[in-house]
């Protein structure tokens, strides 16, 4: 849509080199580059943001993703071409704190409306262990949580999220909060299509609430609360449904666990009746299989939905999350 044709600023171009941003090729939802279409051009940082943009924007948006399918998003570097796409876009949708190179690039870009998903919900700090509190109030608790931050969406959250867990999209309730904020941002930036953005947002939020309901029902009757993962991506999900996530590594999926941590996990697995060590499709499964072999456990995939590939158990966020629910039900002995 970008009617105000811009050229990438000299400051931004210089910074691309100064920051050592990489040479990856941009991945787009179609062949046109951001800023060169008659639609509302959105550059999304990685899949969960692109999914929101596509569902909320519908036919009115052209979405370009900075992270290619199958690429581990934490490791993304930004090319000069991608920096140019950011400059020419109508909006940049990203999640501050997940991809340092994207945070730098968006900060330098002078053209787009900047939509930080981290400002649209409340972030928390999680370590290798997260969750562990039982949700005793069922749907009442869910409704309270859904509306806890309604007023916050209309205020400027100008605070630092350094050290906070960015994996909010794995909690359907928090992801719905983000969706509502993105919808409002699209309506403001592209008012000609505000009614459609509003309707599309409502439809997406309805789907996410239904997903939340499936998780609550599906995990209600289980024999164990503890699950083990390779990296600490599922803290929000664990807290939402009264589970405990024990991660081999922390928020960085490439970090190596200590011998002490591996021994601790062996003891936890035996004490809490853990049956399965979960790994994910975009990082190595070596440590998960090592731990599982040491304790005689099974392995399975719990997908953080950071990208959709041919190996994903579904074609979009909702399908992969349903597959995650099936895997958790099996591992936790849900009936």
TrEMBL record:
InterPro entries xrefs: Bact_metal-bind_prot9, ZnuA-like
Disordered as annotated region, ranges: 128-167
The keyword Signal is assigned to this record: yes
Extent of Basic and acidic residues compositional bias: 131-165
Keywords for the protein's UniProt record, in alphabetical order: Signal, Transport
Family label: Belongs to the bacterial solute-binding protein 9 family.
Protein name: Zinc ABC transporter substrate-binding protein
């Amino acid at each position: 849509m970008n009617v105000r044709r811009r050229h990438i600023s000299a400051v931004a171009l210089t910074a691309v080199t100064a920051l050592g941003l990489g040479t990856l090729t941009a991945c787009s939802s179609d062949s046109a580059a951001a800023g060169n279409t008659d639609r509302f051009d959105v550059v999304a940082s990685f899949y969960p943001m692109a999914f929101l943009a596509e569902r909320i924007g519908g036919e009115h948006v052209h979405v370009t993703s900075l992270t290619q399918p199958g690429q581990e998003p934490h490791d993304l570097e930004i090319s000069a071409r991608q920096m140019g796409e950011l400059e020419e876009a109508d909006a940049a949708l990203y999640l501050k704190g997940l991809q340092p190179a994207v945070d730098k690039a968006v900060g330098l870009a002078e053209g787009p409306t900047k939509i930080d998903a981290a400002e649209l919900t409340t972030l928390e700090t999680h370590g290798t262990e997260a969750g562990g509190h039982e949700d005793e109030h069922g749907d009442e608790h869910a409704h309270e949580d859904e509306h806890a931050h309604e007023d916050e969406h209309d205020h400027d959250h100008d605070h630092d999220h350094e050290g906070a867990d960015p994996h909010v999209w794995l909690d359907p309730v928090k992801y719905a909060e983000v969706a509502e904020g993105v919808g409002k941002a699209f309506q403001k930036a592209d008012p000609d299509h505000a009614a459609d953005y509003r309707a599309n947002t409502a439809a997406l939020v309805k789907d996410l609430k239904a997903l939340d309901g499936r998780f609550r029902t599906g995990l209600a009757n289980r024999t164990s609360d503890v699950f083990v993962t390779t990296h600490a991506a599922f803290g929000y999900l664990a807290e939402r449904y009264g589970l405990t996530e024990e991660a081999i590594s922390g928020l960085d999926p490439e970090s190596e666990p200590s011998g002490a941590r591996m021994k601790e996990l062996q003891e936890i697995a035996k004490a809490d009746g853990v049956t399965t060590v979960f790994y994910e499709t975009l990082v190595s499964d070596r440590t998960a299989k090592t731990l599982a072999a040491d304790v005689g456990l099974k392995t399975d995939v719990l997908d953080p939905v950071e990208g959709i590939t041919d190996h994903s158990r579904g074609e979009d966020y909702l399908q992969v999350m349903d597959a995650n629910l099936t895997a958790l039900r099996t591992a936790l002995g849900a009936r």
